[in-house]
C-alpha cells in the first residue's frame, strides 16, 4: 500500500492508480465539447482527472484510452498532451523564479549563489541541466538535497532577461516552495530528455 501524506488533499492517478498529494499530480478536466483541458491551478469547474506528474504516466494515459475511461465519456486529447503539459509546467517554474527575483528572494550567477550558500540563505537551488557538471555538483552537495535541476540555461536566464544562466538560488519562503513543486514536476515530465 502507498504511504499517504498526513496533510493536504489526496487524489488517485488515473494512469498508475497511485494515491498521491495533489502537488505530485496534474489536474485535467473536460470542456463542454469533451476536449481535455489542463487545469494546473485547480480552478476550473467539473470533475478532475488526475495524472501523476511523470513522463511515463502521461504517456500511458495517452496511449490506452485511460482518460476516456476516467471521464466516463468520449474525449478529445490535445495532439501532444505530454508536450503541452511539459510546456505549461516549464512556464510555471520560470514564472515562480521570476516572482522570487522581483520580490528580491532570488540570486543568480556563480558568485552570488556561492555567497548565499556560504551564508546558508538559500532554501532552493536550481541549476541549468546543460551547465558544467563540476560546479553544479559542488553546489548541489552544499544544498544537501535541496537542489532541483530541470531547466536549461536559456530558460533559467529568462527571469533576468539574460541569454543564459546556470545557477539560481531562492531564499526561504512561499516562493521557494512554489518553485520547488513546479521544478520537481518538470524534471519528472522531462524524464532526463533535456
Q: What this model shows, in words?
A:
The chain has 194 residues and is of the alpha+beta class. The protein folds into 2 domains: 69 residues, YlxR-like (Hypothetical Cytosolic Protein, Chain: A, 2-Layer Sandwich); 107 residues, Ribosomal protein L30/S12 (60s Ribosomal Protein L30, Chain: A, 2-Layer Sandwich). The chain contains 7 helices and 8 strands, in the order E-E-E-E-E-H-H-H-E-H-E-H-H-E-H. Helix 3 packs antiparallel against helix 7. The longest helix has 22 residues. The protein starts with 9 loop residues before the first strand and ends with a helix.
List keywords for this structure.
8 strands, 7 helices, elongated, three-stranded antiparallel sheet, 60s Ribosomal Protein L30, Chain: A, 15% strand, Hypothetical Cytosolic Protein, Chain: A, disordered N terminus, alpha+beta, 194 residues
Amino acid at each position: 500500500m502507498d504511504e499517504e501524506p498526513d496533510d493536504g488533499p489526496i487524489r488517485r492517478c488515473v494512469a498508475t492508480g497511485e494515491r498521491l498529494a495533489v502537488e505530485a499530480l496534474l489536474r485535467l478536466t473536460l470542456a463542454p465539447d469533451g476536449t481535455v483541458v489542463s487545469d494546473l491551478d485547480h480552478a476550473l469547474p467539473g470533475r478532475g482527472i488526475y495524472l501523476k506528474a511523470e513522463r511515463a504516466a502521461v504517456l500511458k494515459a495517452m496511449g490506452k484510452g485511460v482518460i476516456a475511461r476516467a471521464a466516463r465519456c468520449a474525449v478529445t486529447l490535445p495532439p501532444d498532451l505530454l508536450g503541452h503539459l511539459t510546456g505549461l509546467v516549464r512556464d510555471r517554474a520560470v514564472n515562480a523564479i521570476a516572482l522570487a527575483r522581483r520580490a528580491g528572494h532570488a540570486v543568480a550567477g556563480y558568485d552570488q549563489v556561492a555567497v548565499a550558500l556560504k551564508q546558508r540563505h538559500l532554501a532552493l537551488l536550481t541549476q541549468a541541466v546543460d551547465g558544467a557538471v563540476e560546479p553544479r555538483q559542488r553546489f548541489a552537495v552544499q544544498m544537501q538535497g535541496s537542489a532541483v535541476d530541470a531547466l536549461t540555461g536559456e530558460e533559467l536566464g529568462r527571469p533576468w532577461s539574460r541569454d543564459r544562466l546556470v545557477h539560481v538560488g531562492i531564499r526561504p519562503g512561499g516562493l521557494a516552495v512554489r518553485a520547488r513543486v513546479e521544478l520537481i514536476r518538470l524534471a519528472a515530465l522531462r524524464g532526463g530528455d533535456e
